[in-house]
C-alpha cells in the first residue's frame, strides 16, 4: 500500500507538471468531434444517432496521445528502471500509472460530453449515469493502454505500433461503451443499459487484473 | 544522517559478490563472457577496461537491471536471477542513466525514492543529502535546468539515500568537475564507513586504485585480470599487449 501511495503521489506530480498537455489532448479530441460532424454533414438526426460512437472514437484517438506520453518521463533517464531497482513492485508502478491515466481519460471524456451535446444536438436526460459510463469506459481503455504504452515506448515506430496493438484489444470495451452511452442518450425502453454496463464492468475487471500481472514482464529484462 | 539497513545474512555463508561463468549477449555480440570472481564483504573493487569491455553490463547484471544469458551471480548469497527483490533491497546502483525525472525538482527527485523506500520524505530529512552533494541551493529547481555534472551529483545523492550493502558505481566521476571528483572520493569513504561493499567502474586508474582494495580488468567481455588494486596493470585493460603474461 505504501508503494501504491508513493506511485500515485509521483503520478499526480507528473500530471500536474504536464497539465498543459491535457489541454492539447482535449483540443485534439474536440477537433476530432468537429471533424466527424463535418464528415456526416447537416443531418441532425444522423448526427444525434451516432453521437455516442463519435464521442468514444474521439476519446479513443485522444487516448493514444496521452498513453504514449505517459511513459516519456519514465523512459527519458530510465527513471522507471531506477524505481524497480529500489525495489518498487512493478504492480504498484503499473496501478499508479493506470489509475492516473484513468483519471486523465475520465476527465477528458467528461469534458467532451458537453461538446458532443452542442455539436450533435444530442439529448442528455441522465448526465450522471453518462459520466459513470464514461468513467467505466475510460477504465477499460486505460488499463490495457498503460500496458501497451509501456510495451511499445522503446520501439522505434511506437506511434504506429501502439494503436495497432491497442485498438483491436479494446473493441469489446468500445462496443459496450458506445451501446451504453447511446441508450442513455437516445432512450432505453428495454432497460438494456444495465447489462451493457455490467459487460463493461466485466471487461474492466479482466483488463485491470491481467494487465497488472503482465506489467512486470513488460518492463523487466 | 544516513542509515544502512541491518545486515541480513543471505541464504548461506556468503561472500558479498560472487559471479560464476557470467555471460550476457546483446544480439550476436557477447558483452560478457564467462566472468567469474568472488568479492568479500566490506571490500572495494575497481573495475577497469576500455569502452565496451563490459563494465556497465557487469554492474547492471549484479544490480538485476538485466539478466544473465548464462552463469550465475550472487549478492550476499542471493541469486540475481531468482532472488531479484532480495538483491535489490541490498544493493544500490549509480548508473550511466541518472534515474531522475526531468520535470521534478532536485528535492522531489529524492522524495520519490524516499516514499517508495518508506523513509522520511520531508524537506528537512532530504536537504542534508542535497547539501552533501552541494545542491541544497538548487533544491527547488527542475532537473531539466541542470547541467550534466549537477545531474550526476543528484544521482549520487539518490544512491546515498538508497543505502545498499553493496554499492555499484558506474563511472561516478563522469561529467564531474574537480570538486565533483573530490565529492565522489568523499562519498566513497562514506560508503566504506557504512561497511558497504563497493564496486566502482572507472577509467581513472590512479584515483581508483588509491581508493579501492582490489582491481578487476575486463577485456572484450572477459575477465583479464583480478588482484590487488595496487598491482593493477597501469594499462587498466586499455592495451592487452601490456597485461601480465597469461592473463590477456
Describe, in plain words, how this protein is organized in 3D.
The complex is a heterodimer of chains A (221) and B (248). With 221 residues, chain A is an all-alpha fold. Chain A has helices at residues 2-17, 19-40, 44-49, 51-69, 72-76, 79-84, 90-120, 127-152, 158-169, 171-186, 193-219. With 248 residues, chain B is α/β, with parallel strands linked by helices. Chain B has seven helices and ten strands. In chain B, α3 packs across α4 (123-132). In chain B, β7 (166-170), α6 and β8 (197-201) form a beta-alpha-beta unit. The longest helix of chain B is centred in the last third of the chain and has 16 residues, at 178-193. Chains A and B meet through α1 and α6 of A and α2 and α3 of B.
Task: Give a brief rundown of this model.
Chain A is mainly alpha-helical and 221 residues long.
Task: Lay out the secondary structure.
The complex is a heterodimer of chains A (221) and B (248).
Chain A (H helix, E strand, L loop, with lengths): L1 H16 L1 H22 L3 H6 L1 H19 L2 H5 L2 H6 L5 H31 L6 H26 L5 H12 L1 H16 L6 H27 L2
Helix pairs in contact in A: 1-7, 2-4, 2-7, 4-7, 4-8, 4-10, 7-8, 7-11, 8-9, 8-10, 8-11, 10-11
Chain B lengths: L16 E10 L2 E11 L4 E5 L6 H8 L7 E6 L2 E2 L4 H7 E4 L11 H11 L6 H10 L15 H15 L3 E5 L7 H16 L3 E5 L3 H7 L2 E6 L2 E7 L20
Parallel strand pairs in B: 3-8, 3-9, 6-7, 7-8
Antiparallel strand pairs in B: 1-2, 1-4, 4-5, 9-10
Helix pairs in contact in B: 3-4, 3-5, 5-6
Discrete helix count of chain A: 11
- Give the strand tally of chain A: 0
Assembly form of the protein: heterodimer
Beta-sheet strand percentage of chain A?
Answer: under 5%
* Spatial extent as radius of gyration of chain B: 18 Å
Largest sheet of chain A: none
Order of helices and strands of chain B: EEEHEEHEHHHEHEHEE
Could you tell me how far the N terminus lies from the C terminus of chain B, measured between alpha carbons in angstroms? 44 Å
Largest interface comes to:
A-B, 25 and 29 residues
Return the structural class of chain A. Answer: mainly alpha
Amino acid at each position: 500500500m505504501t508503494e501504491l501511495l508513493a506511485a500515485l503521489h509521483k503520478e499526480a506530480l507528473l500530471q500536474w507538471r504536464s497539465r498543459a498537455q491535457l489541454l492539447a489532448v482535449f483540443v485534439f479530441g474536440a477537433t476530432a468531434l468537429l471533424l466527424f460532424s463535418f464528415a456526416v454533414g447537416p443531418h441532425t438526426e444522423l448526427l444525434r444517432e451516432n453521437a455516442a460512437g463519435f464521442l468514444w472514437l474521439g476519446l479513443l484517438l485522444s487516448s493514444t496521445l496521452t498513453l504514449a506520453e505517459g511513459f516519456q518521463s519514465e523512459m527519458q533517464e530510465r527513471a522507471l528502471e531506477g524505481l524497480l531497482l529500489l525495489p518498487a513492485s512493478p504492480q504498484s508502478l503499473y496501478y499508479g500509472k493506470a489509475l492516473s491515466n484513468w483519471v486523465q481519460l475520465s476527465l477528458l471524456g467528461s469534458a467532451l460530453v458537453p461538446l458532443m451535446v452542442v455539436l450533435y444536438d444530442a439529448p442528455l436526460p441522465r448526465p450522471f449515469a453518462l459520466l459513470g459510463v464514461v468513467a467505466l469506459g475510460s477504465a477499460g481503455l486505460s488499463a490495457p493502454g498503460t500496458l501497451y504504452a509501456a510495451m511499445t515506448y522503446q520501439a522505434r515506430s511506437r506511434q504506429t505500433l501502439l494503436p495497432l496493438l491497442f485498438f483491436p484489444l479494446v473493441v469489446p470495451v468500445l462496443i459496450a461503451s458506445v451501446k451504453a452511452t447511446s441508450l442513455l442518450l437516445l432512450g432505453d425502453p428495454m432497460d438494456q443499459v444495465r447489462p451493457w454496463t455490467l459487460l463493461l464492468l466485466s471487461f474492466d475487471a479482466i483488463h485491470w487484473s491481467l494487465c497488472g500481472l503482465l506489467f512486470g514482464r513488460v518492463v523487466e529484462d | 544522517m544516513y542509515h544502512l539497513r541491518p545486515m541480513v545474512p543471505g541464504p548461506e555463508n556468503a561472500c558479498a559478490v560472487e559471479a560464476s561463468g557470467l555471460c550476457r549477449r546483446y544480439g550476436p555480440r557477447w558483452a560478457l563472457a564467462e566472468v567469474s570472481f568472488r568479492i568479500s564483504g566490506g571490500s572495494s573493487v575497481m573495475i577497469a577496461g576500455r569502452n565496451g569491455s563490459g563494465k556497465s553490463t557487469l554492474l547492471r547484471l549484479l544490480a538485476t537491471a538485466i539478466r544473465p544469458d548464462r552463469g550465475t551471480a550472487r549478492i550476499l548469497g542471493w541469486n540475481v536471477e531468482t532472488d531479484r527483490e532480495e538483491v535489490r533491497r541490498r544493493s544500490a546502483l549509480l548508473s550511466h542513466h541518472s534515474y531522475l525525472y526531468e520535470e521534478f525538482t532536485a528535492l522531489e527527485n529524492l522524495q520519490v525514492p524516499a516514499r517508495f523506500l518508506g523513509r522520511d520524505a520531508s524537506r528537512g530529512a532530504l536537504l542534508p543529502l542535497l547539501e552533501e552533494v552541494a545542491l541544497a541551493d538548487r533544491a527547488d529547481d527542475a532537473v531539466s535546468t541542470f547541467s550534466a555534472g549537477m545531474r550526476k551529483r543528484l544521482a549520487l545523492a539518490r544512491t546515498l539515500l538508497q543505502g545498499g550493502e553493496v554499492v555499484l558505481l558506474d563511472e561516478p566521476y563522469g561529467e564531474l568537475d574537480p570538486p565533483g571528483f573530490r565529492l565522489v572520493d568523499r562519498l566513497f569513504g562514506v560508503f566504506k564507513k557504512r561497511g558497504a561493499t563497493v564496486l566502482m567502474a572507472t577509467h581513472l586508474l590512479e584515483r581508483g586504485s588509491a581508493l579501492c582494495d582490489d582491481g578487476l580488468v575486463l577485456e572484450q567481455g572477459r575477465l583479464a585480470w583480478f588482484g590487488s588494486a595496487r598491482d593493477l596493470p597501469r594499462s587498466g585493460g586499455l592495451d592487452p599487449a601490456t597485461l601480465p603474461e597469461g592473463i590477456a
